[in-house]
Design brief:
This protein has 9 helices and 5 strands; from the N terminus they run αααααααβαββββα. By secondary structure, the chain is of the alpha+beta class. β3 and β4 form a beta hairpin. α1 runs antiparallel to α3. The protein is elongated.
Length: 274
């Protein structure tokens, strides 16, 4: 068991060595300026990284062996990159299975477009079109993130996405969550200037923070978000937030998570009919 763990310490050295060889190939083949750039990356980044990884692996292996021989516990056998990647693939498969046919089509289209844009952005950066390449790279990352609620919610602060049946309305959602009581008050239907159609609002509180839930233009998702730009609220608060006691700060992220959970519960119930 110990030797397997120690052997795993060298995997980052092997990864860096492989990358160094791959990046050095264009330079070795004499592939012009781009080959020289790849060679520089291999020599100045991956070769030093491989050396550092090798030294660290030797040190960690010796340390673990000495520790175990002195009666210490076995070191933690952390999952490999392959097993971690396999776990992420299983999670992604579970996310896709939860989507309807339209959601699956959107997922694969956005993911493919995202990958193509990322590859194109990297190619443009290599060709010295750094500004355009960076913009294309960011656009590709944005499409990748927007492909599923899971990736969107994990990478976006202050906003959550919930898929829902297209026929589900804001009014129907409101009926399902109107009994809520949050630190920003109870929900009410109002209007926000930057969003077409009705919106479910919570707050604002004394500090100007409020939460709102609205339906996407394609009608297949609800978005719950936080804001402190009260000038966008067109409708006076019907259920104002309770006055703060002045000693504790409001956990706005916690409030958003609470609203997201309630919205997701209603959307799942509308989808399954349970």
């Amino acid at each position: 068991m110990l030797w397997k763990i120690c052997l795993k310490r060298f995997r980052w050295f092997i990864y860096c060595l492989i990358l160094a060889v791959l990046f050095a190939l264009p330079a070795a083949l004499g592939n012009g300026e781009s080959g020289g750039a790849f060679g520089a990356i291999a020599f100045f980044i991956f070769v030093p990284a491989a050396f550092v990884a090798f030294v660290w692996a030797v040190y960690a292996a010796v340390r673990d062996v000495v520790n175990v021989r002195k009666g210490g516990a076995l070191p933690e056998d952390k999952p490999s990159v392959v097993s971690t990647a396999a776990g992420k693939l299983r999670d992604e498969a579970a996310v896709v299975n939860e989507l309807d046919s339209h959601g699956r089509a959107k997922y694969f289209i956005l993911r493919i477009l995202g990958v193509l844009l990322v590859v194109g952005g990297i190619a443009l950066i290599i060709k010295d079109a750094v500004v355009i390449g960076t913009i294309v790279l960011i656009a590709g990352g944005a499409l990748w993130i927007a492909a599923s609620p899971k990736s969107f919610n994990e990478t976006t602060d202050g906003m959550k996405m919930v898929t829902c049946p297209k026929e589900m309305t804001v009014e129907e959602l409101y009926r399902g969550i109107r009994g809520m009581s949050t630190a920003l008050g109870a929900p009410y239907i109002g209007r926000v200037r930057t969003i077409p159609g009705d919106t479910i609002l919570f707050g604002p509180d004394a500090d100007g923070w409020f939460a709102y839930v609205y339906k996407s233009l394609d009608g297949r998702s609800f978005y719950a978000a936080l804001s402190d730009f009260t000038a966008t609220i067109e409708t006076p608060a019907q259920n104002p937030a309770p006055a703060a006691d002045g000693e504790t700060e409001t956990d706005y992220d916690g409030v958003l998570e609470e609203i997201y959970t309630a919205v997701k519960h209603c959307a799942d119930r509308a989808r399954t009919g349970a």
